[in-house]
Amino acid sequence: MATREQSLTEIRRDLHRYPEEGWTEFRTTALVAEELDERGFDLHLGPDAVDPEERLGVPDEERLDAALERARELGSPEEYLERMEGVTGLVAVKRYGDGPVVSVRVDMDALARDEAEDDDHRPAREGFASEHPGEMHACGHDGHTAIGLGIARELDEHGGFDGTLKLFFQPAEEGGRGGKPMSETTHLDDVDHMLALHLGLGEETGTVVAGYDRPLSNAKLDVTFHGEPAHAGGQPHAGRNAAQVLGAAIQNLYAIPRHGDGKTRVNVGQVRSPNAQNVISERAEFRIEVRGETADLNEYMLGKARTVVEHAAGMHECEHETSLYGKTTTFECDESMVDAVSEAAEGVDSVTDVKRRKEFGGSEDASYLIRRVQENGGDATYVGVGASNVAGHHTAYFDIDEDALEVGVDVTCETIRSL
Amino acid sequence: MATREQSLTEIRRDLHRYPEEGWTEFRTTALVAEELDERGFDLHLGPDAVDPEERLGVPDEERLDAALERARELGSPEEYLERMEGVTGLVAVKRYGDGPVVSVRVDMDALARDEAEDDDHRPAREGFASEHPGEMHACGHDGHTAIGLGIARELDEHGGFDGTLKLFFQPAEEGGRGGKPMSETTHLDDVDHMLALHLGLGEETGTVVAGYDRPLSNAKLDVTFHGEPAHAGGQPHAGRNAAQVLGAAIQNLYAIPRHGDGKTRVNVGQVRSPNAQNVISERAEFRIEVRGETADLNEYMLGKARTVVEHAAGMHECEHETSLYGKTTTFECDESMVDAVSEAAEGVDSVTDVKRRKEFGGSEDASYLIRRVQENGGDATYVGVGASNVAGHHTAYFDIDEDALEVGVDVTCETIRSL
Amino acid sequence: MATREQSLTEIRRDLHRYPEEGWTEFRTTALVAEELDERGFDLHLGPDAVDPEERLGVPDEERLDAALERARELGSPEEYLERMEGVTGLVAVKRYGDGPVVSVRVDMDALARDEAEDDDHRPAREGFASEHPGEMHACGHDGHTAIGLGIARELDEHGGFDGTLKLFFQPAEEGGRGGKPMSETTHLDDVDHMLALHLGLGEETGTVVAGYDRPLSNAKLDVTFHGEPAHAGGQPHAGRNAAQVLGAAIQNLYAIPRHGDGKTRVNVGQVRSPNAQNVISERAEFRIEVRGETADLNEYMLGKARTVVEHAAGMHECEHETSLYGKTTTFECDESMVDAVSEAAEGVDSVTDVKRRKEFGGSEDASYLIRRVQENGGDATYVGVGASNVAGHHTAYFDIDEDALEVGVDVTCETIRSL
Amino acid sequence: MATREQSLTEIRRDLHRYPEEGWTEFRTTALVAEELDERGFDLHLGPDAVDPEERLGVPDEERLDAALERARELGSPEEYLERMEGVTGLVAVKRYGDGPVVSVRVDMDALARDEAEDDDHRPAREGFASEHPGEMHACGHDGHTAIGLGIARELDEHGGFDGTLKLFFQPAEEGGRGGKPMSETTHLDDVDHMLALHLGLGEETGTVVAGYDRPLSNAKLDVTFHGEPAHAGGQPHAGRNAAQVLGAAIQNLYAIPRHGDGKTRVNVGQVRSPNAQNVISERAEFRIEVRGETADLNEYMLGKARTVVEHAAGMHECEHETSLYGKTTTFECDESMVDAVSEAAEGVDSVTDVKRRKEFGGSEDASYLIRRVQENGGDATYVGVGASNVAGHHTAYFDIDEDALEVGVDVTCETIRSL
């Protein structure tokens, strides 16, 4: 747990071994907090780092408590756990000079999935695969967290820069649950420049993408339908059939009209009606994701989806509940920051290829932080750091080339110094 | 028009030639009224025979006016047309003795369909096919009306009976539109016995069925959906799509849960969305029929159908209107009346076969009159008079064997005298 | 395991404590076999009692092996386990005299559900609740098996009767999986009279129903749809969406046309598409149950359901697999046997109320055995033995009044002796 | 009919008064042919101008015959009517010099709609509104045809140009039915430059748009479903319900997955199931339009639509027929031609505003001719000629500012001379 003695690779492997899903990153937050505290950063933990009211897709109390207890058992310093007050996330600030406030945002959460256990998978082969069943760092956030620490180390140990560094260690990026609550604090108010970064994204180690554009906005809605059971043979009319609601809702969700102003998406997952086939379904559920090329198009889809869900339930006299699980918006990287990163990257030895901009295929809730900075007059970019992934993001065999950690640190620090 | 000189067959052919759809039976009503007036019956015409407020499926004013004008042009006596006040239907009463009040119900309306014009069809061959395009007596109501007159003639000319005769000439049986409004008047309050009758029903001439049971209750609902047009290529999101409502509604109407207590039915017809395929549909419509083994089951289906329609519209943000087009209920014939008709029929020479009871396959709004009589303590039956039909009811080649007219008159009068 | 020393109540409680789901009744079969073997019955075990090829809804090998191993560990005699050759079920025969062959059918399987564990539930309170998580005797088959043994004891120990006794210990009644394969053997060929019996069915202890009629025929179909995953944001067109198939299939299954000839039913349960909401569903599944008032109506529904499933898959370019999980047919009890049971029951002291016949609400695969006996010229009935259930069949708190066990034995034996 | 004496405005008004829908432009074709014949053009009429086998959405024989007869009655020269052999369309060629082959494409067909008859509508007020009920020039093709003649006149009477003029008078543009068959002839093989033009398109008179880009590809599919009628009350199972097919098809058509590669569209119109609500539908139909940002995306949608239609029918055991009614593809205008038109337009006095390029909102089957020219190495553009429309294209009050006719002629001739 004495991370200062550990290399970035060692830290990354430690995090990989003890992955924590969104809003349960107690150990991860504490681990980061401990080193940055020792380095003299001002720490803003938990409710001081994210607006608790704005959190989306928070697990239930029991789950949170169990995760906290697990962190405790794994030796996380009680001091930081307490300061979190049950809320994960960290903003760490250090002033090195009078110049601009530069922020870096990294995310910390793992995915809800099992990790491959066979020898084809390096983490398993080399003994640092997940020890938490059902959780896995399959999107590189372990590396992002390590890079965040690496940036602090690099600047701290090599003279800082003429300005203030603000590190945002964001919880719950998966699902788009942590970006908005982190953007709703005051920490971004004075930020002049922001870099968010991501490992992998299909690029080889040595490649840096200085800016990504136009991720689709998205929103995730969890829906439960409540009906009334009845014997399907004797009293088919006496129930209120939540499985029929599923049928009507699925059909009409995919049939939400396309929009003339741009791309829209809708998808349904985790569909479930557990009733026996001789009983009218009393409960059914699914999870929806909608997307739009713009925030407006995303709202269009979300509104339509809610309408379909409401009337599918009404059609079969069922009740329904919805809960917004996560949400992201879109962004555009500023040309000024793309310039800065490109130029900095050209000067880093381990960088072999610099791409100025690419379209961002998926969705990202760094978008909320980026837009907040831009609204306040700052500029921002989202940087891709190639990591030669051997398997796709979110899959059981996902891994990163750890050489990419230094690339990420160096490009970021070089950029920060140049601003 | 001097019907007293005409045989029943001549009258039936006259009516067949000038068929009038439901609520437009101006000429038919006037024709009947004229003879019964001459015979000294008390006449209750139009709003005095049916409750105008309870009428279902009434054509628009323009259509009613045109039909009235047509009746005028065909020589209907102005006196009766005026007394109808735009409402068809007639109750005619004559007291012959102190005994029970016996009523007979016949219906008068034609169907909305073209009649066959080729020589295979006797009415065409012998020159009495419909002269009203789009209207045809394809269910024998021309014969029923003639039988109603025949009963009046027979009793009037052969000594009456010890009681009071009430003849109900019902409009708009097709669709189940006239029975309920006729049952909502006071004319049934003092009725001791009622016979309703129908020609054909799959029986040969000479066969009499003394009672039918358990027609399905039904209801007909006309539905219109209002959306918003938009160009399907450029602005697919800008419309509100009434054609999509059709899809959702049709699928979910047929999926209304079966009922544990008995038979239910639902069907959709006259579906229409006239939009060009490159325009989002701004208007769609269909007509629904539901049925139930009991009045309650029919209400169950009607309620569910309304719910589906409402939420199909809501799902696609369209408005909707519904209009109840027609409605029937179920009935059971009284054993006492089945006995009376059976015995009477046995004594009629032209009757070769007497069946006591059969199940009634379709729906009938005589049900409302029958139930009203039964509620008031009277008894009632629905009698089938075989007529050797050469083609199915409601088809272009439907015709009746006119020998059945006398059978109908004789069996009914014989029964009346026996009560 | 020395059941001869145990009372019927003790045996029932032993079976209740170690419930075995359909096709895994290894311990139950062996337990019955052991006592009947000692009593000199000819035993037909496993493949000699049911046609293995005709079995429906058989669990996978792993599950069967585990259940067999469990029976072994619980001390089931190896001899009988071996003779079963992996197939449960038993026909036991003993000849007492030259008279008719009388058969009794009881079922042995438990349900796939957890049992209540609190003190409100007598089996929990008195220590004989299920020790097999996920399995419970919640339909009284533990009592049926005990009654089967009780009949053997009673006849064996009190002079037999003038004829041959054939006891059918049927596996896998739940879901309708064992009746057909048991009826496809030759054991029913010479049966003159058959009684099947069931405890509870809403009747108080002391009540006997001498015959049930017209259970709905049913069939259960398990369906899996195979699609192709794709990223719902980037490549929505690249997948083949099994969740969309669910929508189309559910909507159209419930919309299978009602049938003019009688009752039909359809219901969908255990709906599941486990894909994440940002991935096009690659796999979805559900389980269907159809029913019909007759075997033909059941086939109508099953055929239509297969058609809907096939085309719902085809519509979204998915593949599908179906597997018939269970099937029952309908039956009518013979008046002769209803007479015999009624009269016998009147003579049994513990019987307080004898009902001749009731309609059977649910479905039963004893139907296949009953019909086979009737086809061969024998007569049969299905007898209800009241058991004052404190909770509904198939629920976690289901229990039987054990006094009903003797009632069942006495009524059956009295009937057998009277035939 | 002596068009040489008529001004372009007179010709346009004559055509406006006698509009002819797609594939019935007999009078229009003959009128054009007559003047161009007199001017010494080589004429390719009917099957010599379009490939008859490739025609889409051709009206039935009866309709074609009636239109031909109508043209005859209106005085069209028999010579040209005969040469058409029942197929409309004309390619007219005249060689003025050795230079390039320049082609101009105009379309001739009217829309299937009624024209406004009140005085707010200039054609009605000034007496040249449509005399053909149900047909109207509501998209300016009357003007296009006049401009085509005007170009011939201008060049013919003012010295021609150094090259060959090929005029394509295309039939059946509405619905996208005539472009493809005209492009499948050899007439385009030697074309070096092509201009297609359209009046209006939202621009004021005096504005010229030198190029349009990326119209959506589209396809129109007419679909008929054949079921089996049955009485919905008595025999609901006996039919095969084409109305249910509508429900399943509509729902699933709109739910065709969005495509990751670009815009797609689908819409359903002219939905119809004419069955009475108490009869299972034996016939239903609708017309579909799909679109795609590219020809491939359009094919994707068309393929998916066909799959949905097939399986919606199969799901309810109905048959179906489909007929491709029309089809267009997309195009890009060549920079060289946009330059040429822009420069020429700048030099025309009546032109007040020149726009280089706009996106094309709708769909256009000139696309097939344009792409054919480009495939053969030629260049092409699609030119908009502003016409200050007082009402939207395709509406009852559509009209053009006739001053735009000369603008169209002048810009085109100026361009031709410059090539």
Automatic annotation (TrEMBL), chains A, B, C, D:
Keywords recorded for this protein, A-Z: Manganese, Metal-binding
Coiled coil feature spans: none
Cofactor: binding details: The Mn(2+) ion enhances activity.
Protein name: Aminobenzoyl-glutamate utilization protein A
A biological process from GO: folic acid catabolic process
Location of region: Disordered: 114-139
Required co-factors: Mn(2+)
Molecular function via GO: dipeptidase activity; metal ion binding; para-aminobenzoyl-glutamate hydrolase activity
PANTHER family: PEPTIDASE M20, PEPTIDASE M20 DIMERISATION DOMAIN-CONTAINING PROTEIN
Annotated binding of Mn(2+), by residue: C139, H141, E174, H198, H394
Domain Peptidase M20 dimerisation positions: 219-312
GO terms for cellular component: cytoplasm
